[in-house]
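Pipeline run #58 for the internal structure catalog. This entry was flagged by the ingest filter as a single-chain record with no existing model, so it goes straight to prediction. Upstream metadata was stripped on purpose; only the residue string is passed forward. Reviewer on rotation: M.T. Logging verbosity set to normal.
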Amino acid sequence: MTLFKQLALAVSLIIITILASVLAINYHNTKADMIESMYQTTVNNISTLAQELSEANNEEAEVISIIDADFSSGYYQQISYKSYSSSFKYTQKYQEKIEGVPQWFIDLTDLKLQSVKSEVTTGWSILGEVQVTGDNATIYQSLYKIFSKLVMLFVLFVTISLVILYIMLHFILKPLKRIQHQAEAIMKNEFIIEKSIPFTTEFKEVSGVINSMVKKVEEMFNQANEAAKRNHKLMYQDPITGLANK
């Protein structure tokens, strides 16, 4: 694996990990805020519901009517009423599939809203108890929209970051290509002195060493070439008369 690919892979993993962590924290905080907000809303609403039920004075038909009316408002997942003076119990529960939210997201999120209880009283008498659980469908729908947007942002940020990373690494590692070109040129008896010095300290030092090596090899090559010419001349020309000896 090339140095470019190794650096790109390592930095990419770091970028993806950081972005994923930031988005996960934001999602978790948003989820916690929504659950807390729903709990506070449920606490505020149950006092009104308990007051309405106290006026019904355990009249079953009226209690059912009040619970059904409040439940249809869409603020609750479940409303349960239990009478202390009789065996009367009544529960309304939301059981329909949540629209616009896939089941895998529901299973993954697994919202657990805290139920709120309140006694239903009239004067000094306790008529019964009402238990309310806030509507989690609204939270699921809101969280799924936020999750979808976060995923889109994550993909966008990762794509932009990787493109910028590719450009930066290509620019930073460009001197290695020139050094490779110098080394390959030596094999062809070509001696290239790199005049464009990299700004990176390590590459600047390597480039300086390579330039020195190219100069040294060029000198050795020229010296060997001159020696070969002299030997060739001695073999075919008499050093005294200057005449060809063969």
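catalog note: The CA atoms of residues 62 and 94 lie 21 Å apart.
catalog note: Strands lie at 76-83, 89-93, 116-122, 125-134.
status: ready for reviewer M.T.
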